[in-house]
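Most newcomers find our protein records easier to grasp once they have seen one. Read left to right, the backbone structure tokens trace the chain's path through space. Once this layout is familiar, the rest of the handout is easier to follow. The record below serves as our worked example for the rest of this section:


***
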Amino acid sequence: METRFEIRNSEFLLIKLDHPERLDEMGALRVLAWKDEQGISQDFFSHKAWLDDEDLLAHHWVILHNKTIVAAARMTFHTDYKSVPHADLFDGSILEGFGNGPYASLNRLVVAPEYRGNGFSTLLDEARIQYAAILGARLIIAQPVASRIKPLEDLGFFYLGKIRPLYQMPERQIYFMIKELGV
């Protein structure tokens, strides 16, 4: 799964990585992209990389420029809501009106600061949504920051409310959204 595209005479490549590949680079990009944002834990983002156990189980997409990762995102799959990352931060009973999984969870979307504003987030979202449908997910869960709510609504997600802050971002509000896929 590979897509080449051009922005301002520069070539980029969107690819789904073989599993697991280039995790250290993605983890380092997460820290680079988030460390100067407001509301984050300076202690947590003083580490070299932001990686967790889900990274080993997840599917990953990257956008490359000159073979360097400039944007990345992951998606995890779950048979029940309780296993979705950060499920404990939101009341899962609100999902009852949507039925049961399987669930896909969009998480860890990151774009290097100097590459923001090029539509990379949308490209990564579309690739993950398409893949979730192929693998038979019934619902896709997203836990975005405020600036990502509108773009996700444009892709068919419904806003369901706020979740409690992540410990990595204790002063940054995170939201809960869901998208139903045709089964």
Strands lie at 2-7, 10-16, 59-65, 68-78, 103-111, 139-142, 158-163, 174-180. The domain at 2-180 is CATH 3.40.630.30 (Aminopeptidase). The mean pLDDT is 90.
